[in-house]
Amino acid sequence: MIDAERFARHSAPLAFALAAAGFVAVLVVWLDGGGTLDLDWIPTLDARLTFTLDGIGALYALLATGVGAAVFAYSWRYLPLHLSHQGRSRGEELRFYALMVLFMVSMVGLATAQDLLLIFVFWDLTAIASYFLIAYDRHEAVSRYGALMALIVTGVTAVLLLVGALVLYGEHGTFALDELIEAAGPSSTVTLAAALIALAGLAKSAQVPFQFWLPRAMAAPTPVSAYLHSAAMVAAGVLLIGRTYPLLERSQLVLDGLLVIGTASIVVGGLLALTRDDLKRLLAYSTFSQYGYVVVMYGLGGPAAAAAAAFYVVAHAIGKSALFLTSGAVTEATGGKTRLSQLGGLGRSLPLLAVASAVAAASIAALPLTLGFFADELFFDAAIERGTWAAIAAVAAAGLTFSYLARFWLLIFAGARRVAVHRIPVTMTGAVVVLALAAFAGGAIAGPVSAIAGDAGEASVGIPVAVEVAYHLDPRAANVMALSAWGIGIAILATLPLTDRALRAFAHIGARAGTERIYGETIAGLNRLSDRIHNFEVRDLRTRLAAVLVPGGILVVLGVIATPTEDAYVVGEVRGREVAMVIGLALVSVAAIAATIPRRHLTLALALASVGFSLSAVYAFFGAPDVALVAVLVETIFALLFVGVFALLPARVLKREATLPMRPSRRWRDPLVGLFSGAIAFIVAWGALSRPTATESIGSEHSRLTADAHAKDTVTAILADFRGLDTLGEITVVAIAFAGVVALLRRGRLR
Amino acid sequence: MRETPTSVLTQVISRLLLAPILVIAIAILVKGYADVGDGFSAGVVAALGILLQYMAFGRAETERLLPISLVPLLAFIGMLIALAIAAIPLLRGEALLTHVPEPRADVVEVGTLELITAVGFDVAIFLLVLGAAVGIIHAIAVVAEGEKR
Question: Can you give the pLDDT at residue B2?
Fold first, then answer.
């Protein structure tokens, strides 16, 4: 344990170095013109391991590694504090970094994968890693609940992605994206597949109506939220949309759907963010609202919008991760305060953090001198191209964003100071400052981001896209829109005391009738159903048998009714040498009927054994010595094991069970089920034996091949050779059963 | 399983039968490819022989006489052999459980037994069944003893 702890202490620098090295490597390869890695994976399924570092790949890979590095630097000091607050060992850091790195690698894989199957694999890997990361504080019920919700929402919708991929494969015979894009024309099949894929992406990006999982996921430690819920997990959704954009673009319906869902997400997220008190939850609502912008831009369509979407993702990821890290630093500095209503006036105590987070917030709110200003400029341009209404909606959305971010920052850092502030480690502030500097530098020199966003747009739409952003000091449309957005934002902020009640009512309605409620009811309903089935089917052996035999029997009856019965049931003759077999069968019947009478367990076991022994005799007469031998041996050892197991059970339990009066409902049900299924089996056997197949059966084929397989005994050759895989499965079951029995007897409470 | 000693007659006969039973088990195994029987039957026969000792002598005496603690290991070895025989063809790019030598090729013969990997697979089944059955018998005997105390 000491060693694990010592090792864990080095995992933060190690993870940081890995992320930084990954960032540099991706940057170098991309500047070198990108590259493709193409390997065979599952040739029979046409699945290939194809990775390309194109614009989209480079953009998201750089985000994943770059923001990853900042978050790892932050966690270096944050995580030990977090763990010590909860009285946990530092050894648990190892799990954190292992999962974060797994997530980062999956994210890079997802960003560069060029094959739908491969994308699906990485997609689910990110979901699995995120499940464990959100539930990192696993002793907290809210963490486990939030993690499970994120996993279920993104995992179930991931199946839609797989279905979409399979629909495309069925139509075009390939999973490779470039081939699909070339082959797929506008058709209803492509529309269906595109809609499914888009839905998977929207759920991952927490868009309405799947938005509810994101605020719940805020139960995760702050670095996890900062990473997964700004630059990675939620970004994966729009990454998928950008990656499959040429397919989505084939259908105007899908694009319009994106537009509607994106707009709804912006509005719902923005309005709710205005009412939130919890720091991280506010940021969560803000996050899905911001990704709504990106979705809207993809919905607007066209090369410029695709590039603008990519640009926006970069600007948002940098700013939002800085704000998440700020919220963690603030909570740490104030000794655990997580609510805006508890905070205020921290600007004088934490000046550096205040300035850095102001820059980050300004970038998302699109103030000049930040990267976000250009992002909004592109957004406005795209909206103008679409028409007046889109432009008005864009301005309103930008105003909303401005207002809730201003509220967030002002309530933390401005006003009167209400709480005592401790010093916080310099790496925590440092990570925020670095991200803020990146946002600021992007505002001064937008060239690199423009270049990569243009490349990403090109990867989405297939034609070169030039992204040109600059400050223009003239009354052009985008500038006017930005100015009016700020005005609207200030107006919203000023009237907040008046509108607060209405906003809260809106939030209340959402909680009562929203999709989160539907999710909760569905899960609770499924749980109840599962409990009911468990009680009915699993806990009672006889009900379970009846549940199989009766429906199976009814199916057979239907089959018998549907089949012509003429000549189907023949009563044959008994020849002289078959008399012994008939006697054996009569013995089986007598033993079987006798087995229904005894109530004492030992007698019952012996009666069942005598059924088995009589049946073995029939096999022997029937000319199946191999089967007869195995049957005798199995019956012997089972009878003895039954006796041995009865010896373990307390005598009074056996006695009580044997003398318990039968439940009235059982008195008739069980015999009827038995008679019914017995009669069905009889009819089927009779019908099958009345008409021996004329063609050469598989049996004689096996007999013919036996000599070739170096054997003289067909049964053994079947077991070890022809059907060896079945045997392998069966002996595996024997081994597992053995392990189970031993574990139960050793540790179970059989006493 | 029983603490009370069984009659001397039972004990003598059980002891006398052990060796023949094991020989029969081996015979069933070896002749499996030429005659009635296979690894599964052989494993059960051998396990029955050992079960007989448990019933006649009780656990302590049987486990003093036979290396029972090693028997569950046989199940593990058997499973490993079976998986190896199944999986090694994959490394050569052939289907799972492809046996060598190929059909109709020349093979080494020992009496009626032809040495091919399918026989090894059968031996693995024998070891697994014997190990699992005796392991379960042992576990039941241990618990039954605790019950008595």
Answer: 46
Predicted pLDDT at A464:
79
pLDDT in tens, B129-138: 999 999 988 8
- Structure confidence at residue A749 (pLDDT): 52
User: Length of chain A in residues, anyone?
Assistant: 751
What ipTM does the predicted assembly reach? 0.90
Asked if the Cβ–Cβ distance from B137 to A644 is below 8 Å, we say: yes
Contact B132 A636 (CB under 8 A): no
Q: Collapse the DSSP code of A518 into the 3-class scheme (helix H, G, I; strand E, B; otherwise coil) and give the result.
A: helix
Interface test with B, best of A627, A738, A750, A751 (most B CBs within 10 A): A738
Taking an 8 Å cut-off on Cβ atoms, the answer to whether B104 and A708 are in contact is: yes
CA A250, chain centre distance (Å): 27
- How far apart CA A684 and CA A560 sit, in angstroms, is 8
Cβ-based contacts of B136 with chain A (< 8 Å): 641, 738, 741-742
Q: Quick: pLDDT tens for B65-75.
A: 888 888 888 99
Would an 8 Å CB–CB cutoff place B86 in contact with chain A?
yes
Of A362, A370, A233, which is closest to residue A288 (Cα–Cα)?
A: A233
Q: Provide the pLDDT for residue A750.
A: 47
Helices (H), A173-221: 177-183, 188-204, 213-216
Candidates A622, A715, A728, partner chain B, best to mutate (most B CBs within 10 A):
A728
Question: Min CA distance, A620 vs chain B (Å)?
Answer: 12
Res A751: pLDDT: 43
Q: What is the pLDDT of residue B114?
A: 74
B116 residue type, one letter: I
B118 in reach of chain A (CB within 8 A): yes
Tokens of A360: 């980050």
More confident call, A746 vs B23: B23
Residues 34-53 of B with CB under 8 A from A: 34-41, 44-45, 47-48, 51
Specify the length of chain B in residues: 149
pLDDT digits (tens, 9 = 90+) for A83-103: 888 888 887 888 899 999 999
- The whole-number pLDDT of residue A228 equals 86
Nearest Cα to Cα of residue A74 among A350, A424, A348, A351:
A424
CA distance B23 to chain A (A): 16
Taking chain A, what is the end-to-end CA distance rounded to the nearest angstrom?
36
Q: What's CA A730's distance to the chain center, in Å?
A: 32
- Shortest distance between the Cα of B35 and any Cα of chain A, in A, equals 5
> What is the pLDDT at residue A3?
63
Q: Which residue ranges of chain A lie beneath pLDDT 50? A: 1, 750-751
Report the gap between the CA of A40 and the closest CA in chain B (Å).
15
CA distance A454 to A465: 5
